Amino acid sequence: MSRLMVDMIVTLDGYASGEGWPGWWGLEGPEYLAWLQQEAEKRYTILLGANTYRLMSGMSEQGAGGGEGFSEDESASLTALAAVPKVVFSSSLTAPLRWPNSELVAGDAVEAVRQMKQTHPGPLSTLGSLSLCRSLVAAGLVDRFRLVVFPLITGRTGSERIYDGYPDVALEMVDSRTFDGRLQLLEYVPRVIDHPPLSGGR
């Protein structure tokens, strides 16, 4: 059975991006970027939705072409994603997908991932795709919930609130580390909670 990891980057106040901010909020460093490249070599199959597919495939193409605005390390990290197997859940995209090693699934994502966990030979990981991640957590399909927390509060400019619409989830920490003296990785085993302890099950 394959293990599924939800993998996200987030500000301290729980936003996935912010108006006027660059990728990684401009706070990525060489240690973090090297780790990203190492993770890309671990043979994960990446799960993503249409919006994240459009964004990341475009960034990967720009990185491979030496596009402006990317450092050498950023370009290497983005380019490496082209070689990673990807499953894209979308009813709006059409096959064949332009980004290499991308498979399109138009049906129900939760049921497709449930089946993949039973039959897929390797580990699975999400990339962005907030609504997909929310659905997979709520369905109890996620084995690991991993965050990289960036030291920033974007209360005025933040967008894409990560946890809106989530069920209550208990988190057991299984790993943590710091990148470049400022980014904090936190990895948990998640467990969806039916009701808070003091509610008495009502």
UniProtKB/TrEMBL annotation:
Coiled coil: none annotated. Residues 4-184 form the Bacterial bifunctional deaminase-reductase C-terminal domain. Gene3D superfamilies: Dihydrofolate Reductase, subunit A. InterPro entries: DHFR-like_dom_sf, RibDG_C, Riboflavin_Biosynth_HTPR. It holds the Pfam family RibD_C. This is Bacterial bifunctional deaminase-reductase C-terminal domain-containing protein. It comes from Arthrobacter liuii.
